[in-house]
Amino acid sequence: MHSLASPDVxxxxxDANRASGARVxxxxxxxxxxxxxxxxxxxDDAAATDRMSDGALRVAIALSGGLDSSVLLDATARVVGAxxxxxxxxHHGLSPHADAWLDHxxxxxxxxxxAFDARRVTVARDDDAGIEGAARDARYRALFEMCEGADVPVxxxxxxxxxxxxxxxxxxxxxxxxxxxxxxxxxxQIDSKPKSPAVRIxxxxxxxxxxxxxxxxxxxxxxxIDDESNDDVRYVRNALRHEVIxxxxxxxxxxxxxxxRSARHAADAQALLDEYAAMxxxxxxxxxxxxxxxALSLSEWRLLDIASPLRAANVLRYWIRAYGMRAMxxxxxxxxxxxLRSAASDRPLSCxxxxxxxxxxxxxxxxxxxxxxxxRDDSELDEVLNESLNESFGDESDSHFDHAADRHNxxxxxPALVQSSRRQRDRAGDPALDWRLDWTGQPVWHLPPWHxxxxxxxxxxxxxxxxxxxRLRDRVLRAVQxxxxxxxxxxxxxxxxxxxxxxxxAGLPSWRRDVPVILxxxxxxxxxxxxxxxxxxxxxxxxxxxxDARTGSEAGTQAGTQAGTQAGTQAGTQAGTQAGTQAGTQAGTQAQTEWLRLEWxxxxxxx
Length: 607
Description:
single chain, alpha+beta, Rossmann fold, 3 domains, six-stranded mixed β-sheet, five-stranded antiparallel β-sheet, 20 helices, 22 strands, 50% helix
């Protein structure tokens, strides 16, 4: 129940709501005006230009049904006009309420007199990117497809200042460089498919805190849904939102504005680096036939590397991004740079990243899409091309340009020693990365070096991926780098295999193998993407069952003996003992065993 407010308080609330409404509408109006002008200037079609100048540019609104997207839908329909809007909803099927959310989104669009489209997607819960990452990728693919189908060039997203602050903090604690710290751009151009029209992503509410959106929603009488998973602090972003942000806001009330300024500074600095990289690219670029992305001259890159290792590293990352690939991890990038510096001019240079192969022939460096060889699957091809470039582990989401100066200092000290240490690091995991946990029932184990979280999910005896909780309490859990030579057995009746072979069999490309190896004591227990080691999990399960059965049996025997003795007959004692033993064994086995399923979830930076 809400108590009645005094007239003065009600008047203040009304004034605040009007002010919030004005800010929301102004933000959307500004974004729409910018997009209309950009659409006109970018269009080569005279008819399209006329339509845009007449205010006919259509806008899509990504509508989940939550607070942010509900406010965005209402404000955009008011500013742009309902007839020029289309609301897009993606049904993931991950929540039992997903159907109700779809109905709510459809009704919200109908109430706003806005066109509506929805797409159902299937999200693999065991995806290598984690369930959050897989859901995010599936959502954006579906949104882009719906934009293309509706011939809509602009899509509005409801991210606000609180989302931006969370993203910045997550990137900062992960050690991100400028590109990561820039967080979410207010405007981004996305080429969803080759030869398909680009979709411009716009976040009109990015400068507004969530509190403003709440006031706007109340003033407009909007209804929205709350995703129950947003309260699950096992997810890193939720833990930050519920456990870190509140005390930070109390101590630094204007922290959102401060972090937003830092993000803009990082974005400006990265843009400047990109400008320098584009200029350097002109001197390194080799002209190729057709519209292929640029190829680089290895000899020219080496000359730049001698003059300025920082600029050489910068242009190399810029070139990788020009192919639409994510940045490499620091260790992988260091290894690539070392190979480029030492590669013989008369020998091929091949390594893979993000499904592409780096080729070196007659001084020309190019990235080619990996293709299937006859009689050999993609994972085997990937492994052949990486025989001399073992997988390295680290962050794949950020360029880490800031580390280039440290690498330059290392090179100037003792080249022979540095090259030796690099080769050793490439062959083996980092011994310093040995995280330990005395597990006492924690639901999650955050592992920042691998940018993910190990989740302990309760399950039952029917789960083939179960492990008894009692064994996890008996020995220390360790998370370490893969150093080579580790073996495990992933299925009943299957032989023990090396992790390298198992990754190949599972078809996991090299850039999906940057995961921790979870040890129980000194034995491999679990590897993300491969699952449990049966040699450890099955043995421990039997041991645990026998212990629980023995405990239940002893308890049942004692109870039965006592009951039989009290009855005063030898038959009663014997019958009680047998019945108690059987009942106790069954109860002990079923009730006393706590089963868990281990799941690896990568950190999701953008919800």
